[in-house]
Amino acid sequence: GLPRLAFALGRADNFWFFSFMQGSKLEVPLWLAKGLHDSKRRIISVELPKIYKEAWRTVFSADANVVDLHKMGPYYYGFGSQLLNFDNPENPEIAQTILQTFISRFRRIMDSSQNAYNEDTSALVARLDELERALFRAGQKGLNDFQCWEKGQASQITASSLVQNYGKRKFTDVDC
Amino acid sequence: YVYRTSHICPVLQAEGLRQALEEMRTLYDRNQADVSEAKSGRTDLIFLIRFRHCCLLRNQRCILAYLYDRLLRIRALRWEYGSVLPNTIQFHMSAEEVEWFSRYKKSLATYMRSVGGEEGLDLTQDIKPPKSLYIEVRCLRDYGEFEIDDGTTILLKKNSQHFLPRWKCEQLIRQGVLEHILS
User: Fold this and answer.
1) Where does the pLDDT of residue A103 fall: very low under 50, low under 70, confident under 90, or very high at 90 and above?
2) Helix axis angle, A130-150 to A76-83, nearest 10°
3) Mean pLDDT in each 10-residue stretch from start to end of chain B (183 residues)?
4) Is B104 in the same domain as B143?
5) Which residues of chain B are within 8 Å of residue A17 when distances are taken between CB atoms?
6) Which pLDDT score is estimated for B86?
7) What is the DSSP letter of A17?
8) Which domains, ranges and CATH numbers included, belong to chain A?
9) Of B14, B35, B39, B107, which is the most buried if we count CB atoms within 10 A?
């Protein structure tokens, strides 16, 4: 087995100690698992989080729209894509599920982001993963910008967000 | 330029950066020592060396992402606010960032002078397509005297309203001195 290892990690005044024996299980951050993973020399093997395993994949393929991806994620797509780095034999199925999930959910997200008067919007957004939320926001912004243009406000010069956020404080300008 | 939802530049987390760099120094030194040992036979250390290397790269990525994000915000300030930054924001920036802003400004000015013929072209003007040459503005705070092209000066007092050339007002509106009123 591997010898006892101790190393400095984290704050300079704080030490974490790990001891490894072959076959031991650990929870590590994704970036560390990616760094340690080696296709040729099997240093680590990665266990799939349950949401990417077969049981949940079946749920997704039945109806992806009902799943609360925020609770399950909140980075279902991003994290799932990263999981494909670990040469898991189920990778083709995982990739397919992630893709199909996105396809089946996207239509509803796009439609409701274009409709500012949809009462169900916040309930929908609550169940979106972060990627979907970003898309939803982009849709809303497009809608708002269009309405602004329709009202003839598109040419209005606005204060920079710097000013809006700092309020009425008086600035002393400095040349740099 | 990159348009971000928030152009604010918060205070540089110098202490956090220092700690991250110190951590990297520690990891690097220990790896240096262990690599020589590994070369002289202790192959069991290879995993540990690899681990530390992952941590080093991670810290590097985090630091670079942080500094780069700040640079993008600072760059956006030139476009959104103007070429002269308020004191309060400058205090949030490191000396290197202030220097970077100054050089970016010069670079942009040189470029703008080189396009659009003799006078150059101010690309930071008319970010939104203008509808008219003159616009109605209201003064949001006491500013003082303001000279317009034909030599006349007007007094910008809080709540006063004026009908002014758009190109003269744009920067003051962005800086919160004036408000663009739509008729």
Assistant:
1) very high
2) 140
3) 51 85 90 89 83 92 92 90 87 92 96 89 88 92 86 89 90 91 83
4) no
5) none
6) 85
7) B
8) 1-47 (no CATH), 48-152 (1.20.58.2050)
9) B35
Of the partner residues A31, A161, A176, the one whose CB lies closest to the CB of residue B90: A176
| CA B110/CA B40 separation, integer angstroms | 57
Question: In whole angstroms, what is the distance from residue A45 CA to residue A33 CA?
Answer: 9
Q: Return the DSSP state at A6.
A: B
Q: Look at A154 and B129 and tell me if their CB atoms are within 8 Å.
A: yes
**pLDDT value of position A166:** 63
Euclidean distance between CA atoms B147 and B150, whole angstroms: 8
Here the ipTM equals 0.73
Give residue B99's pLDDT.
96
CB atoms A159 and B170 under 8 Å: no
Residue ranges of chain A whose CB lies within 8 Å of a chain B CB: 2-3, 5, 7-12, 20, 31-32, 35-36, 43, 152-166, 168-176
Tokens of A35: 């760094």
Judge whether residue A62 has pLDDT over 80. yes
Kindly state whether residue B156 falls inside one of the protein's structural domains. Answer: yes
Would you call B178 helix, strand, or coil by DSSP? strand
Say whether B86 and A154 touch across the interface (CB within 8 A).
Answer: no
| B145 shares a domain with B103 | no
Domain span at residue B168 reads: 134-180
CA-nearest residue to A164 within chain B is B176
B26 and B103, same domain (yes or no): yes
pLDDT for A2 beyond 80:
no
Q: Distance from CA of residue B81 to its chain's centroid?
A: 10
Output the domain CATH number for residue B143: 3.40.5
> Would residue B2 count as lying in a domain?
no
Judged by CB atoms closer than 8 Å, whether chains meet at A43 and B86 is answered as: no
pLDDT of residue A10: 35
